[in-house]
Amino acid sequence: MNIENTQSQMRKGILEFCILSIIRRGEAYPSDIVEEMRAANLHILEGTLYPLLTRLKNADMLTYRWIESNSGPPRKYFSLTDKGLQFYQELESTWNELANAVNTLAAKKDSLANVPASNNDNL
Amino acid sequence: MKKVININFQGRVIPIEETAYEILQQYIESLRKYFANEEGRDEIINDIEGRIAELFSDRLKKGSTCITDDDVNAVMASIGRPEDFEKADDSPNNGPRTQTTQQSQPTYAYVSSGRGRLFRNADDKIIAGVCSGLANYLGIDPVITRILFVLFFGALFWVYIVLWIIVPSQSVQSNVTKRLYRSPDDKVIGGVCGGLAAYFNTQSWIPRLIFALPLIIGLVSSPFNAWFNDWDFWWGPKVLTGSLGFTLFVTYVILWIAVPVATTSSEKLEMRGERVDLNSIRNTVKEDMESIKSKAQNFGNEVKQTAQELGEKAKGFGQTAGTHAKAFAAEAVPVARRTGSGVSNVIGILFKAFFLFVAGVVAISLFGLLMGLLFGGFVIFPFKDFILEGFWQNALAWLSLLLFLGIPIVALITWLIRRIMGVRSKNHYLGYVFGSLWTIGLVSFIILMGLLARNFKSGSEKEELFSLVQPSKGKLIVDVATSNIRYYGGDWFGIHDEDFPVYGLNQDTLMLNTIRVNVVKSDDSIYRVHAIRFSRGRNPETSLHAAEKIQFDITQKDSVLILPKGFPISKEDKFRNQRVLVVVEVPIGKKIQLDGSLDSYEWFNVNFNSRRGWNASWDDNWERAYSWRNNVEYIMTENGLKRTDRESDDEYDESRKEEGIDLPNDTTKPKTKAEQDAKKPNQYRYKGNESKPQSKPDSSKQEKTTADSEDPTDQNESYPSLIYILSRIAH
After folding, report:
1. Which residues in chain B touch residue A65, judged by CB atoms under 8 angstroms apart?
2. Which of B577, B683, B560 is nearest to B626 (CA)?
3. Does residue B619 register a pLDDT over 80?
4. Which domains are assigned to chain A?
5. Between these two residues, B469 and B153, which has the higher pLDDT value?
6. Which of B433, B442, B474, B729 has its CA 20 to 30 A from that of B674?
């Protein structure tokens, strides 16, 4: 068991949810998504984001359109599809349940009921 | 001061420093590798490239004149290097790359427990990448699977074909990057041992000792050898130190030629088998670029190309095979063009496999032929002193042996090692060197043959009448002396053939038994024995001289005529196809019996000049000669020899078995007249000296008959000595 590993596992699970929740608010450009997440203190590399977006797009969760930019090649702006929205909503409810459960558990301060005395001595 | 180049990147022209461009290229290549198994790889790369282009544009807009190393590094930091992705990303894409992950970050091992599917490795392949893909899948060195497939070629051929058809081709990062290089840092002579030690993960003194041991033993034992050589022709220690040492020496030289030196640091890493991981990827990217290119070809192209390639290769292998392969290639190209669907893929593979099979068979048979020739060359080697004369002939013989026969073998082995060990060829001049050396060998071989032919050009014979004391009981017995002299090396290299024209050999004497006994009818009432000695030479004088030098001493004991077992040829005399014909004239009414030991004689003919045959003057005698069988008493009659025990022997088959030799029909019927014999088709063995076709067409034809009649193996009139011996070996 390794703390970094567990942390990254936790992050990984919510990454898609976070991305979808940003795109839900409107068409998004990947580097904007990165900025948005960084502002929320959630660091992600663009190199990680692109494959995730492509995967979501290939799963029909996302769609994109090209928008001409003045600072470079045309940009790909991503937006949610209906299926993606539905997917997001499911994730959201799951997240709420989970967050609720985790918070409840983490917030509890009282000690657990005493475990029956062990019979180890008799063994 | 740095050079700036303009690149077209995602549709924009970007000025970039050359070094920065290289870093960028390697970076994108590493990403491409990282996402190799991702479904939307191209799209991801494209998106990232677009983003990079955008960042570059920003940078240029802010006033930079060009993109520098720092800019690229900044971009890379913002997008992330492949090794950074791993922390956040465990998509199925990194199945095959888990090796790297496991190595550098063992804690992530469980993330990628699945090793991924079995792929044919499109990056590292010799034929179709089956072996390397399999090795990758099993996590072993591709060299091992390749050697296994080569060794069990017969059994695994179809396995290979099936895998080729069903397993998809993929660009898989090789999990073993160990390659055989010569070590420049750890070398004594060529760095071969150092490289081998690195390859097999041992200390370098171990291969060194293996290579040096025969040399040491040879040095130690050479005084003993010199001692033994004085009185015996003993091969024992020489085989141990000599041939093994020679093999190792040749191996070393071949490896020296075939294996490149590890010059760059990445090659040194590869030599030591250290994983070239993502951090050191910039070292390997350049080399991989080329394989990426080839990977991009679609399967139809692949089949087409290989078919053409193999067609070309097969063309070179030989005319017959070449024309076949060409025809097949012509057929295969349109087939390959049509490929595209799954079914035609299978057809394409089968075609490819078929070519491979044909090419392989041709290559193997060629190799076998070469080995046979080389081995023949070595077998004939002890005879060389008896055939060659002078410095030039010896030099030419050595050149022919080493270059004409040796070079193709060395080249073949070099090629095989390079293929199997995955050594990348850098020097193209090797082919030219081999080619020109081989040409030199070929030329010297031709010149040598020409020179040798001259030595056999003219023939002479010397007749001598043996002063025979007439046998008392009216019966002459012909026997062969049992020699008391022991000749060493008669069983040279395990070749023991009773048909061998040479029955004994030592360092300066060659024992020949090219002797023939003819029985003819005497004109008067006395037995007569002639010994006719034949030899060939450069001119009539030398051939006559050589014929006179033949020592052939016939002795007589009462009624037994004892012929020597053979006659010696000394190194000075040289082998010039010396032969002895013993003609026994038997008067009518007298008996003769020939001992079985006469079978040890072998008539062996070298005839270069078929126009002026060597035996022209003996035609008369030969026509009167009769065939005979061993250990049977004959009586001479008006019509020829006649058996005394019965009228005729019909059960010749039985006797044939007893004697174990293949006597033609006519020998079993001694009474038969010569004219009748001539009509029989299969009397090839003794026909020549017994009977000629009655209507003599011309002299050249006669000689042809004689030559053909000698032995089926020496029908080839030129250089039978070599061909004869080779054919014996082949049998």
Report:
1. none
2. B683
3. no
4. 10-94 (1.10.10.10)
5. B469
6. B474
Smallest Cβ–Cβ distance between A5 and the set B78, B81, B107 belongs to: B107
Rg (chain A; Cα; Å): 21
Supply the pLDDT for residue B281: 43
**B81-95, B281-295, B544-558: range with lowest mean pLDDT:** B281-295
The token pair at A87 is 């997917």
Residue of A46, A53, A61 to mutate, testing the B interface (most B Cβ within 10 Å of its Cβ): A46
Which of B11, B44, B53 is closest, CB to CB, to A50?
B44
A13-27, B348-362, B687-701 — most confident range: A13-27
Determine how β-strand B4-9 pairs with β-strand B12-17.
antiparallel
Per DSSP, B318 falls in state: -
B450: left (phi over 0), alpha (psi -120 to 50) or beta: alpha
Q: Residue B575 burial by CB count (10 A; 0-12/13-18/19+): exposed, middle or buried?
A: buried
Tell me the C-alpha distance between A122 and A119, whole Å.
Answer: 6
Contacts of A30 in chain B (CB under 8 A): 47, 51
Tell me which residue has tokens 């296994």: B148
* Number of alpha helices (DSSP H) and beta strands (DSSP E) in chain A: 4, 2
Residues of A in contact with B78 (CB under 8 A): 45-46
The 10s digit of each residue's pLDDT in A88-101 is: 999 899 999 988 99
Instruction: Copy the structure tokens of residue B231.
Output: 């009185």
B13 touches chain A (CB under 8 A): no
Question: Is pLDDT larger for residue B308 or for residue B210?
Answer: B210
What ipTM was reported for this prediction? 0.79
Comparing CA positions, the residue from B377, B382, B555 lying closest to residue B481 is: B555
User: So what's the pLDDT on residue A96?
Assistant: 92
CB B563 within 8 A of CB B500: no
Closest to B88 (Cβ–Cβ): which among A12, A57, A73? A12
* DSSP, res B240: I
Task: Report how far Cα B40 is from the mean position of its chain's Cα atoms.
Answer: 50
**DSSP code of B242?**
I
Measured in angstroms, the CA of B158 and the nearest CA of chain A are apart by 39
Of the candidates B449, B448, B459, the residue with the CA atom closest to the CA atom of residue B537: B459
Per-residue pLDDT, averaged over B649-667, amounts to 42
Average pLDDT (B37-59) is 82
Packing angle of the helix pair B265-272, B192-200 (nearest 10 deg): 60
Residues A79 and A33 sit within 8 Å (Cβ to Cβ): no
Report the gap between the CA of B25 and the closest CA in chain A (Å). 16
Beta strand pairing status for A62-67 and B560-563? unpaired
Residues of A in contact with B56 (CB under 8 A): 72
- Among B16-20, B182-186, B708-712, B719-723, top mean pLDDT goes to B16-20
Closest alpha carbon to B429 in B257, B183, B254: B257
- Rounded to the nearest 10 degrees, how much is the dihedral formed by the CA atoms of B90, B95, B99, B100? -50
Using alpha carbons, select from B158, B153, B208 the residue that is nearest to residue B186.
Answer: B208
pLDDT computed for residue A93 by the predictor: 92
Residues of A with CB under 8 A from a CB of B: 2, 4-5, 8, 11-12, 15, 30-31, 44-48, 50-55, 57-58, 69, 71-73, 75-76
**Which residues pair with residue B536 across a beta bridge?**
B459
pLDDT band at residue B172 using 50, 70 and 90 as cut-offs: low
Test A52 with B89 for CB contact under 8 angstroms: yes
Average pLDDT of the segment spanning B70-98? 63
> Regarding predicted confidence, which is higher, B658 or B532?
B532
B411-433 per-position pLDDT tens digit: 777 777 776 665 655 566 777 88
Q: Which of A54, A70, A71 best probes binding to B when mutated, by most B CB atoms within 10 angstroms?
A: A54
Provide the shortest C-alpha distance from residue A74 to chain B (in Å).
8
Length of chain A: 123
